[in-house]
Amino acid sequence: MKQGQSLKAIRRFRGMTQKCLGQQLGFNEKNAGVRVGQYESIRRPNKDLRERIGQILDVNPDIFVGDTDEVLRGFFSCCLLAEEPADETGDEFFQRLQDFNSQWQKKKDQLASGDITRGEYLEWKLHWSEEPKEYEREAESE
């Protein structure tokens, strides 16, 4: 998914127009919608703007870092480097990855069984990185 498509999908999920979001970001009323439209299609927001968008839309601003392909390439590079024998944290990295995947699968199962709604599932996806992870809870209890 393109970065702009994520912004558009989340903005719509929140029931917000381009103009409304643009005005909350501080763009003038006349071109607020046009500016947001540009970020949904061709422009990339800088870090400060991503932070402000994240606050307004109540999402982790990292969602807006880049296109899916770029994020996946960066992620895969991290996986390859974590496997290096000189890196003692490789096993921990892959355990975290497995934990993240398990959390995701659990939510998908809850959606499929009707325990949560599609909206609740999307809300979880927008905030999943803010939840305490299993390995963090274990460390706190020790």
Question: What's the topology here?
Answer:
Elements: H1 3-13, H2 18-24, H3 32-41, H4 47-57, H5 68-82, H6 90-113, H7 118-127, H8 134-141
Helix pairs in contact: 1-3, 2-3, 6-7
Order of helices and strands: HHHHHHHH
Under the CATH scheme, the architecture of the largest domain is Orthogonal Bundle
The best one-word shape is flat
Give the domain tally.
2
Task: Predict the CATH topology of the largest domain.
Answer: 434 Repressor (Amino-terminal Domain)
CATH class of the largest domain: Mainly Alpha
Please count the helical segments: 8
Provide the gyration radius in Å.
18 Å
Name the CATH homologous superfamily of the largest domain: lambda repressor-like DNA-binding domains
Distance between the amino and carboxyl termini:
40 Å
Low-confidence residue ranges: 133-142
Q: Please give the largest β-sheet.
A: none
Q: Would you report the number of β strands?
A: 0
Give the fraction of residues assigned to helices. Answer: 55-70%
DSSP strand (E) fraction? Answer: under 5%
Mean pLDDT figure: 83
Structural class: mainly alpha
